[in-house]
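Lab notebook, bench 4. We co-purified these components, and the gel suggests they stay together. Before we commit to crystallization screens, I want a quick structural picture of the whole thing.
Request: model the full complex, all chains together.
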Amino acid sequence: MNSNVSNRARKSDLCKRAQSAGWSQRQTEAGYSRPGGVMAIMLMILLIGMLGCGDQEVRFGAKLFPESQILAEMLWHLSTSAGGEGPRPKSVGDTRVVWKALLEGEIDAYVDYTGTIREETLRSENLTTDAEVRTALASRGILMSDSLGFNNTYAIGMLESEAARLGISKISDLTQHPDLKFGFSTAFVDRQDCWPALQSSYGLPQTDVSSMEHAIAYSALADGAIDVLDLYSTDAELASETYRRLEDDRGVFPEYNAVLLYRQDFAEAHPEIIKELLTLVGRISEEEMQRLNTRVKVDNKVAVRVAGDFLISEFPELRPQIQQQFRQRDTSLAQRIGEATLDHLSLVGVSLLAAVLVGVPSGVISARYQRLGQIVLAAVGIVQTIPALALLVMLMVPLSYLEVTSIGAIPAILALFLYSLLPIVRNTVTGLQSIPPAVRESATALGLTSFDQLRFVELPLASRTIMAGIKTAAVINVGFATLGALIGAGGYGEPIMQGITSQNYGLIMEGALAAAGLAVVVQLLFEGLELFVVPKGLRITTAK
Amino acid sequence: MLAIHGISKCYGQTVALHPATISFIAGKTTALIGPSGCGKSTLLRLLVGLIPPDQGIIQFDGEELREDNLQAIRRRLGYVIQEGGLFPHLTARDNISLMASRLDWSDSQIDERLSELCSLTKFPRDGLNRFPAELSGGQRQRVSLMRALMLRPKVLLLDEPLGALDPLIRADLQRDLREIFRAAEATVILVTHDMGEAAYLADSIVLMRAGKIVQQGLFQDLWRQPADEYVTEFINAQRSPLETMTVEGEAQ
Ligand SMILES: Nc1ncnc2c1ncn2[C@@H]1O[C@H](COP(=O)(O)OP(=O)(O)O)[C@@H](O)[C@H]1O
Ligand SMILES: [Mg+2]
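Here is the predicted assembly.
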């Protein structure tokens, strides 16, 4: 895994050259993965090799749930107070994505859990002790702190009222109630140390086990759709009296101690920042974390504030800096939507432009050479059948081999681009093939060159169909781009994802309504554009 | 001017045109006539190079038609097909002048030529700004003619130009076409299945049947010395309405 280190070294080398060319300013603005407008994206594509440069910046990542976000905001506050400069932490995706981002140097640090590293990230190495984990990480250029103070392990929970009625307080009590319905998160069902371990050590007889999104399981429990769920020991819900956490009386669940993971090269370059971050070690108790999660999930406070408030109470000497940071970083709704819109438009705009530039010529060639055309159409058709999420993940693999950033705007744009191709290529082919043979024949017989035939006759005649294809692609892209948030590309997906994980319906609506609104605007925009692109003569024909 | 030597064309199993040799007389009008599917359009398409012949050669002004001179030769030909083949997205003016403007004619040159053509084809000048969908069938055919005549071609190929028009407009256009052919001083090849039209417009007639040329000559030759029964049969097949009147009158 030396390559990661050398990769980064090369990037910073390139960066120095870029800086001397006067590009560093814009590069810094573009951030590591957040599209800051169409121009910035164009620049990012041009400077692909240099992405991730600007090593003066400190960057933190988070997974897509509030606890991870709160902890990342703490890191940012501490780093900024210590003079570190860098963007606010990004929720880049699930464990795999954040881990990749750290390995590739897209981020410098984030908070993970020892159990996750053992059982998921480095599962194939069968690590058992923290010492082994530390060694395995070090060989990858990653360092691990001691526990931040809490163990966010899995737990089993029920509604307090139900548990009281049935007299259940320990997991072993569940064996007496074989009819109870279980609803577990997908990871919980799959992980060897979770449901399979639980089932065999306690001999649980229940057969009605479904898997669902963790945030949804609580609503399912309230509705009575399930009786028992898995939870995290720091879940906000456990701070209330509504739920009972069943005691793990046989000690099946392993430790998931929260630890800071950071890059060794970063620690060497910025020892003062790392020193500041490590002051968090041992400072956050399980109850404290529950309380902080509650402030985000129940009180709908933003993570950056919750994190800052905690730090002020814990390190009063930081109060002035953190309050200063609040003033700088508190964003209004309009500002938030504005930023998300810019990101979203960049994702859609750039991918669509690329798809038009590639798709229309491909359609022209496909219409002319039928055999080749069938292959092209089949290829772009297959891409369309890949589920959006799978496509995003599939793209990460080749991109990381190419040493191009595998998270953020670039893979999202690439995926959107691939999705846009089918409607554009297909409509170009259809449009060209439905030109009446007499018209085509006349154009040839006039003595027009084949390029002129295409330019003055065929493309104008096919323009309506081609425009319809582009419009379809654009509208689909607006919706699909929300998934970009899963890999840290920003856009309207970000409030949606955050809303889902923190059960903040306002945030979900904010993203969903904005996306729907943008889809309508895009639709109207293209209908207006048609008036310019589609020749007047064609519109008369259909009017009659 | 224009000649074909041993030209033939097959579509898979169907022989659209058996080897044919014809010399079209320069400056004269030749009518290609015959029943539907006898290969008239195929012959015209071969002459424009829209489809390649299976064998034989086509000579244009002594020059053999080849891949490399095809585009240049097409610009010296005018071609009108039955459906007109007008570009629906362009106005009449742009339809007519598209090729000329690609050849960098100046606006005044184009305008001058348009005026000539409008008076030649009796097309109202203000119709030039209309789109094909806004023109009548007869007007559309006149525009197709103007488009074919724009570059002052030496050869004019017309594939059933009047096929889709009603009789009055048809008669009008037939009269105008005669003028146009004379004025253009071009070698004209006109496809039709109407013997009256052929006799009225053409100097020479080529009668075809199932991909073969049956007889070639003046109408009088076909009438007086038919090559076989089919020729007479074809001429007689064109009934005059007056014929019925006479028969009924005699019966009474
Ligand atoms: N593109 C084509 N493919 C196959 N057969 C064709 C094609 N064009 C014409 N033919 C056949 O060739 C023969 C001559 O057609 P055509 O020259 O159009 O006849 P005409 O113009 O005299 O009515 C017909 O039998 C027709 O079916
Ligand atoms: Mg025909």
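The two ends of chain B are 55 Å apart (CA to CA). Worth comparing against the SEC data before the next meeting. Residues B 40-41, 159 surround magnesium ion (ligand 2) (CB under 6 Å).
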